[in-house]
Design goal:
alpha/beta; five-stranded parallel sheet; five-stranded mixed barrel; globular
């Protein structure tokens, strides 16, 4: 029987994109994705270390995999494996550590030698796109690396410098995924807005990539995973506004609404520039949903600085907030700053910001009720004898509704009820694309 492989992915969407690519690579060489209840032969843990909490979660995921699958070979990759390889290697039961730069050739790494290779027996097998896993929404990694050196972030160390993938290769990869059933392509990267900056390019090359991918038949949607505000140029926004297949959803990290804190963080923008960019984005893309990341309790964050963040969030009305309490990450500049915000105060500020975000989120979700919603159906399964479909709207709201034989189609439903941070829909009004 073919070996079975299971993935455990922590952290960012780029990590998920890389896990998807690794799974596709292994599937194309004959490995089978382990289903729920299966005992995998190999477990790959794709780790994160962006915060102390993420590092702790990564360690727990590794130990859980070793405990739950004692007969499996355990492969650890991702940023924690790069930042602290000796610490990972010291965990009893870890068989192989794979560098971030080797993720794209995981099959070759595992087939080249060592304790995993005899099990996998994939050293001489070539990849076949005919066996790519079926995914309606597919992550496409277009670049990696970062050159910003934000004071709280270790990513430039674990991911390295800016590196962009060739447009022709990305087009070929997308065509293969479309053949395998993908209808929405999600562009991912550590610093998506700097696609081709490493080779002298600018945002015009990102627009050219949009055009090339949208020219592929059966690409119904193109989504950006995350982009910094300074890359939302007039040309980028004009193209997005004129192209209905680009999703009306942007994740634009903020981190703080106070200029002093942004400067201490070494962020490449100020509040005025950020506000201008998102207002222009909202004007160019009516109905745009904006999500963001915010760190509370950064060293030096006064009550006044925090209130500036609260006010900006209330003004912009983000559809989704990701709130993190600051925790010093070793090997970053912020780790040497005096952490003068008391943990209890961080907790209180975090709660206030989360509560505000939840209030705005509820308003956003309720605005979807009683009107037609276009949903790309990504999953269909039987629940208590009823066929239930789920998928995302273009502005990134998860919807559930009854339906059968709709996987991979675009349908129109009517939103009936807010439920579990998403929308429960009624009957399918019409099938838009099949």
């Amino acid at each position: 029987m073919s070996p079975k492989v299971a993935f455990s992915t922590l952290g960012c969407r780029l990590n998920q994109a890389e896990s998807d690519s690794m799974a596709e690579d292994l599937a194309g060489r004959g490995l089978v994705a382990a289903s729920h209840g299966d005992e995998p032969d190999v477990v790959v843990i794709n780790t994160c270390t962006v915060t102390r909490e993420a590092t702790k979660a990564s360690r727990m995921a590794i130990r859980r995999a070793i405990k739950n699958h004692p007969d499996a070979k355990v492969v650890v990759t991702g940023c924690y494996a790069v930042s602290d390889p000796d610490e990972v290697a010291a965990i009893d039961g870890v068989d192989v550590i794979v560098d971030n730069n080797d993720k794209e050739k995981l099959a070759e790494v595992l087939g080249a030698g060592g304790p995993v290779a005899p099990l996998l027996q994939i050293g001489g097998l070539s990849r076949s796109t005919e066996r790519l896993p079926y995914r309606v929404r597919s992550n496409l990694k277009v670049q990696t690396g970062c050159d910003e050196w934000c004071s709280f972030c270790i990513i430039p160390t674990t991911r390295g410098p800016l590196r962009s993938f060739e447009e022709a290769d990305l087009v070929a990869e997308t065509k293969a995924r479309v053949v395998a059933g993908a209808r929405e392509i999600v562009l991912t990267g550590v610093h998506l807005g700097k696609y081709t900056y490493d080779t002298g390019g600018d945002e015009s090359r990102l627009i050219a990539l949009f055009e090339s991918l949208l020219a592929i038949p059966d690409v119904w949607r193109l989504r950006l995973s995350s982009i910094l505000s300074q890359h939302l140029t007039d040309d980028v926004l004009a193209f997005m506004g004129a192209e209905p297949r680009i999703c009306r959803h942007l994740h634009v990290p903020l981190q703080s609404g106070d200029d002093g804190i942004l400067k201490a963080m070494n962020r490449p923008y100020d509040v005025a520039g950020y506000r201008d960019a998102v207002i222009r984005a909202q004007q160019a893309l009516p109905g745009l949903a904006l999500a963001t990341d915010i760190i509370v309790g950064f060293p030096g964050e006064s009550d006044e600085a925090f209130e500036e963040t609260m006010a900006l969030v209330d003004e912009i009305r983000f559809s989704k907030l990701h709130v993190f309490r600051f925790s010093a990450r070793h090997d970053t500049a912020a780790a040497n700053m005096p952490d003068d915000v008391h943990p209890q105060l961080k907790k209180e500020r975090s709660k206030r910001l989360i509560d505000l975000g939840n209030t705005i989120r509820a308003e956003f979700l309720n605005s979807h009720l009683g009107r037609p919603l276009e949903v790309l159906v990504e999953d269909e399964r039987e629940v208590d004898g009823i066929s239930v479909c789920s998928g995302q709207t273009d502005d990134y709201v998860r919807c559930w509704f009854e339906g059968e034989g709709l996987l991979g189609t675009m349908v129109e439903i009517e939103g009936d009820e807010v439920r579990a941070d998403g929308i429960r829909g009624g009957r399918v009004l019409t099938t838009i694309r099949r």
